[in-house]
Amino acid sequence: EVQLVESGGGLVQAGGSLRLSCAASGFTYRMYCMAWFRQAPGKEREEVATIDSSDMTTYADSVKGRFTISQDRAKNTLYLQMNNLQPEDTAKYYCAAVDGSLCGPEYGYWGQGTQVTISS
Fold it and tell me: Residue 113 above 90 pLDDT?
């Protein structure tokens, strides 16, 4: 059974940083894509960043230059380093994964989410 467990969320002031982690278990696919999504109250879910099994990455325009997605295969952990956080980054952040060579549009595995709140 695949499990994704996020951690690292919290409350920080604007301009601050956070690093989210997503611990993956039971995920043994050779080719895969992992992603971070976020959803703020009243807004649609937004894909923030993706990374595949070849370490190719993509970012939403809203986070380019501020967020970095990475993975540690030895620890089966996905990360999202978030710098220069702004109030509009406030949302619940979710880790997602899909097996295969394509990133999305559908992801078969999701974590429970971790809340990120940025104060102005």
Answer: yes
The label of the residue with tokens 């370490």 reads 55
Gap between the Cα atoms of 87 and 57, Å rounded = 24
Handedness of CA 53, 54, 59, 65 (dihedral sign): positive
- One-letter identity of residue 16: G
Residue 33 has pLDDT above 90, yes or no: yes
| Contact residues for 17 (Cβ-Cβ < 8 A; gap 6+) | 81, 82, 83, 84, 85
Placement of tokens 């982690």 in the chain: 21
Residue 63: closest CA among 40, 77, 84? 84
Q: Which tokens sit at 8?
A: 């690292």
For residues 29 and 32, what is the distance between their CA atoms, to the nearest angstrom?
6
**Angle subtended at Cα 20 by Cα 9 and Cα 74, rounded to the nearest 5 degrees:** 145
